[in-house]
Write a structure and sequence with these properties.
By secondary structure, the protein is of the alpha/beta class. The protein has 7 helices and 7 strands. Strand 2, helix 3 and strand 3 form a beta-alpha-beta unit. The termini are far apart.
Amino acid sequence: MRIIGGTAAGLLIKVPKGYDVRPTPDLVRQAIFNSLGARVVGARVLDLFSGSGALGLECLSRSAASVLSVEKISRHAAFITQNLASIHLAPEKFELRTQDVFTVLGQLVAEGREFDLIMADPPFGEKNIGRRSTSFSQQLLDDARLPQLLAVDGLFVLGHTKRDTLSLPSHWSEVKVMKHGDSMMRFLGKLVVSSREMLPA
């Protein structure tokens, strides 16, 4: 797997072996970053379920201001650290937390952190026709702490499989949907309720 664009374009990154890692394919990453364009430059990025770190490292290569990657499995986190070093990106702009994603969300809210871009391409969920999804992607959508971490004009880019039908909670607004093979990427913004809208009729 390679970094696609930016200062580290063309450099190889290593991916952990096994079925518990599903790296975002190059063509899908290319489409994501084509859509994001200059939005990545200077962005504060949160990369959840990082795996090999490909999405976060791609952001750093494309001049993001900072990247925080979250990966629970220590063996995978070690690959992220190795990849950062091997493609010679600025370590001072990169933070890695080897913890459960949902634990980290609470910590970040308590710290008052805010991000311009939140990215997540978690392990795929099961087919869920006739029932509500229980996948990691749906759990992220349902977690009310996540919108608190997103800047007002920020974007949440979420991956899932076509067979996993997601329900969009009211605090999210869908901006764009991309489909590639079995993968889907949703670009979401948070709905901000104005003080006028909060007033009783």
